[in-house]
Amino acid sequence: MEDDPLKHSVNDSSFKKNEEPSKESEELKINREKALLRKQQFQQRMSKTPPLKIESGDQLDDIPYDKYKNPLRQYFEGKITISLDIYDRDRFRVKGVSIPEDIIQTIDSFGGKLLNESNSWTVPLSNYYRFRAEIYRRSTAEINDIPRFVILLMQNPNSSMKTNYTKQYEKVPSLESLPYELKTKMYPFQRDGVRFVISKHGRALIGDEMGVGKTVQAIASAFLYFEEWPVLVICPASLKFNWRDEFMKWLPQLKRNHFFIVESGRKPPVDAKVWIISYTIATSQQTLMSAHNFKVIIADECHYLKSYTAQRTKAIIPILQASRRVILLSGTPMISRPAEIYNILTALRPDIFRSYFEFANRYCGPKKMLSHTDFSGISNAKELYSILNSCLMIRRLKSDVLSELPAKIRQKVEIPAEAQQCKAIRKIYSDVSTSKTNSFPLLEGNQFINQAYLLTCQAKIVGVCDYINYLLECECKFIVFAHHLEMMNAIQEKVEGGKVKFIRIDGKTQAEKRQDLVNEFQSNKDCKVAILSILAAGVGITLTAASLVVIAEMAWSPSVMVQAEDRAHRVGQTKSVNIHYLFGPATLDEYIWPKIQAKLSVISKALDNDCNPENYSLFNPECKLGFGDFDTEDLFKEIKHFNAFS
């Protein structure tokens, strides 16, 4: 049978196609053998070449890697990858998979130490430049390098853009310059916090957990730069008066005329030493603050600046960057992700943190999406922790300093009181004091007290809700006690508005449901708030999941409030318990507290021989943590001379 020419044609074509890959494979094999030979020759030559002499202070861009760069890298790029990151203040880490022996020898030659984790070594940070250069010229490994801004920060952990050029002429302050009482009443760890701020030339983040005492550390640090005052305090609106009281308590040489609480339309007094402004007002008064060129600024709860798109962030960050001393305070500088802390870092060190995307690509676990890059994750967490704690922030948890803290820490928090209700309280007193009987009915059950107690509740509602909102933004887990249903309803409305899970126990709560609510608060981390009646829920329940207790309304009996405090301070509590008493000036609170102290004194002498340490802060609250006391004058003397009504 005659052969089909088309068949031969197809077969020939197929044969040629099969031949070509074989030819290419042979050529590739020869090229690889030649490349391996060149690599061996190159490594032999490099082993005889003296190492590069690179000083630790040289800039990355000045290192002539290309001069000694391995010419075989183009054949082997990507075969081996090693990653570098900061391990702690003095060392960086080298890690990778299947690292060859020649690289391990290089690591050892630069003082590397093997970590417990596999394929990871630490190397002294002083050897970083020389190590990096040696790896580039001796191997074909691909390096995931440490970003330049991180290296610059580790090189200059204590300098700042505003003080570096004057550092050699600047007199470094000392704790010995602090007033004696302030210095002696501070705990040792608080003095360490002030020393940290000094070491950073007045630009630092105090990130201590709530209840450890950030306020006193900030005041002491700011005082050391008194020659550069006036000082500007930026804080939540609910804390403005509290900051004024703290300054006056710790620095008694300051009088009321030395303070200026900034409000729209008000002009500052000439002799104002301390300016206090809320974040809301600061947003609208950017021009005013910029014009005064404050050299010392305290920003309390600085996590309020976490959103780069927020107007207050855009208004306040440039003012912080331009100031010479910036003391930032926050127990939660990072609420949920690393991206939130960038604004704080660029406020402290604008010379280092210049690009959000550079920071986010390193620490925010970038994920490429269809239309954008998602920066809501986390990456290089160990390195971020290291640079924060080495160069920018001091942070202590309650558990770290528990041995130095008392079991209970009571704090007076002054909140604004509505003028209308305060005037009504004054009028009732005026009517009673000028009556024909000229009686002075100050018993709890009489008409004056009942009316004044309700008016006090109404006067404090706005201030209490503002403070509750502040705690919600801090994502605290806390218990709040109140007496009137009107107050409890207002608190519940505020919590519901914040879309936060809560429980509520009052006189209407059925007995069989109480324990279910308690279990919910104790076991559910997302259940952040317990709204409790101080009479109906002040006894018989355990709520140790929270270490913060807020007394929104004071009770008449000291034992009632101590019982309320002990819902959190009891067996099973592992932290020091903070109790915040929300105090309304020119309300019945001015009268209740001294009476409670007198009653408790009688009880303590009879039952405890006046030796119960837990009562000391009720009698005469210590201010070691920067908290105010309750040493107020009688209500009626205060009202009579109260400036707002004179």
TrEMBL record:
The keyword Disulfide bond does not apply. Coiled coil: none annotated. SMART domains: DEXDc (SM00487), HELICc (SM00490). Residues 1-29 are annotated as: Disordered. Pfam families: Helicase_C (PF00271), SNF2-rel_dom (PF00176). The chain crosses the membrane at residues 529-551. Keywords: Hydrolase, Membrane, Transmembrane, Transmembrane helix. Residues 195-351 form the Helicase ATP-binding domain. The keyword Secreted does not apply. Residues 466-619 form the Helicase C-terminal domain. One of its GO terms (molecular function) is hydrolase activity. GO terms for biological process: DNA repair; replication fork processing. PROSITE patterns: HELICASE_ATP_BIND_1, HELICASE_CTER. One of its GO terms (cellular component) is nuclear replication fork. CDD domains: DEXHc_HARP_SMARCAL1 (cd18010), SF2_C_SNF (cd18793). PANTHER family: DNA ANNEALING HELICASE AND ENDONUCLEASE ZRANB3 FAMILY MEMBER, SWI_SNF-RELATED MATRIX-ASSOCIATED ACTIN-DEPENDENT REGULATOR OF CHROMATIN SUBFAMILY A-LIKE PROTEIN 1. This is SWI/SNF-related matrix-associated actin-dependent regulator of chromatin subfamily A-like protein 1.
